[in-house]
Amino acid sequence: MTDVKARLAELVGKHDVVLFMKGTSLFPQCGFSSRAVAILDHLEVPFETVDVLQDPEIRQGIKEFSDWPTVPQLYVKGEFVGGSDIMMEMFESGELKQLVTAEPT
Amino acid sequence: MPMAAAEIEQLIRAAIPDAEVTITDLAGDGDHYAARVVSPAFAGLARVRQHQRVYAALGHRMGNELHALQLTTAAPSGDEK
After folding, report:
1. What is the pTM of this model?
2. Domain range for A79
3. Domains contained in chain A, number
4. CB-based burial of residue B62 (10 Å sphere; 0-12 exposed, 13-18 middle, 19+ buried)?
5. ipTM over 0.85
């Protein structure tokens, strides 16, 4: 478990915006993941995706890492933001744009 | 294994006693639900924490028997976002 944690910490630390999802941004394998990608596309920010279907260890590990039972999961600047429902709420209120565009690195 | 809406509501109420729970069966298949949970217990909690409370109430069912639950949470007033 410690190894997975280290891998996950590295993944979320390496890029400003990281989306754990099912499938890829071009071919999402689930409606919720598809919605999450659409939101990020709309914000026009660069983002990394991690396809949990390609890695059972990550797929299970991320749920414990974030204390969150479902995928997709969004991380911004190393912080867990939430799943697609929270992303949608924050997108609609403008909070998400603010979060991803604040202090560009 | 699909879950009944009443069962979902019951589990959430059991864990968050003062919660007002509204369940909508989105697809009519007992597998895709939307839940709106309003509770004073959410006051001052970040959205992520509010959702975590609901997920905790559903335990292992979330992501297993219960595949899709669109979730919105709020404290009773003033905290609507």
Report:
1. 0.88
2. 2-101
3. 1
4. buried
5. no
Helices B47-58 and A84-93 pack at an angle, to 10 degrees, of 160
Question: What domains are there in chain B, each with its CATH number?
Answer: 5-74 (3.30.300.90)
Taking CB atoms and an 8 Å cutoff, what residues of chain A touch B62?
69-70
Chain B residues touching A82 at Cβ < 8 A: 47-48, 51
- For residue A51, the domain's CATH number is 3.40.30.10
Rounded to an integer, what distance in angstroms lies between the CA atom of residue A49 and that of residue A37? 9
Residue with tokens 């992501």: B63
pLDDT in tens, B25-43: 988 887 889 999 999 999 9
- Predicted confidence (pLDDT) per residue in A3-47, tens digit: 999 999 999 999 999 999 999 999 999 999 999 999 999 999 999
Instruction: Suggest the residue from B11, B51, B62 to mutate for an interface test with chain A (most A CBs closer than 10 A).
Output: B51
Q: Are B47 and A86 a contacting pair, CB within 8 Å?
A: yes
Beta bridge partners of B3: none
Q: Which helix (H) or strand (E) holds B35?
A: strand B32-38
